[in-house]
Amino acid sequence: MKSCVVSIAVIVVGFLSGLGLAHESHPTHMPDPQDVIPFRYYLMENIGSNAKEMKAKIDAGKLKEAKLNAQVLAIHSTRIEALFPEGSTTDASRAKAEIWQKWDAFLALASALSTEADTLAVAAGHGSASDVQAQMKKVFGTCKSCHDQFRKPEK
Predict the structure, then answer these.
(1) How many domains does the chain divide into?
(2) Where are the alpha helices (DSSP H) in the chain?
(3) 32 neighbors 39 (Cβ within 8 angstroms)
(4) What local confidence, expressed as pLDDT, does residue 21 receive?
(5) Which residues constitute the domain of residue 13?
(6) Cα–Cα distance, 19 to 135 (Å, whole number)
(7) 94 burial via Cβ count (<10 Å: 0-12, 13-18, 19+)
(8) Average pLDDT, the chain
(9) Using CA atoms, how far apart are residues 94 and 112, in angstroms rounded to an integer?
């Protein structure tokens, strides 16, 4: 029984590690999750890299290969709330004050991203190319909506 529990734990940890490393350009070292701004940047960059890789796979017709990238987006987006404690900004941060002024709208978009990305993962595993393309547009539309409202432009 004990070896079964250990085996399951190893499998789960291995799977979760794979989710975080689903794309090739992943940085080597993860910042301390308690250091919220660098960790937030790291996670958001990971989301962006996975989104780009996912789009390339979908555009190339490699739908099933894109499933893992969509799952990464869905899982990472569930962490967004914890990555934005009130006032967690610096001069280098692209987070707008509107995040905390319109907190419920911000959280609704994070939740929508998780839902839309999860729906995309399911479609990538079982759907048609047109269904997957349509769902990918919903995912990217959710990202754009959040960025337009809550992220400062690049300097």
Answers:
(1) 1
(2) 2-20, 36-59, 63-77, 98-101, 103-126, 129-150
(3) yes
(4) 43
(5) 2-150
(6) 20
(7) middle
(8) 85
(9) 21
Query: What distances in angstroms separate CA 111 from CA 100, 135, 150, one per listed residue?
Result: 16, 16, 15
In this structure, the number of other CB atoms found within 10 A of the CB of residue 144 comes to 10
Average pLDDT value for residue range 61-69: 95
87 band by pLDDT with thresholds 50, 70 and 90: confident
Compute the distance between CA of residue 125 and CA of residue 120 in angstroms, rounded to an integer. 9
Q: Does 31 map to a domain?
A: yes
Share of the chain above pLDDT 90, in %: 72
Q: Residue 128 belongs to a domain with what CATH number?
A: 1.20.120.10
Which residue in the block uniquely carries the two structure tokens 């990472």? Answer: 76
What is the reported pTM? 0.78
Residue 106 lies in a domain: yes
What pLDDT shows up at residue 147? Answer: 96
Local confidence band at 136 (pLDDT 50, 70, 90 cut-offs): very high
Going by C-alpha positions, the residue among 54, 46, 39 that lies closest to residue 25 is 46
99 near 106, Cβ under 8 Å?
yes
- 23 secondary structure, DSSP code: S
Q: What residue type is assigned to position 110 of the chain?
A: A
| Size of the chain in residues | 155
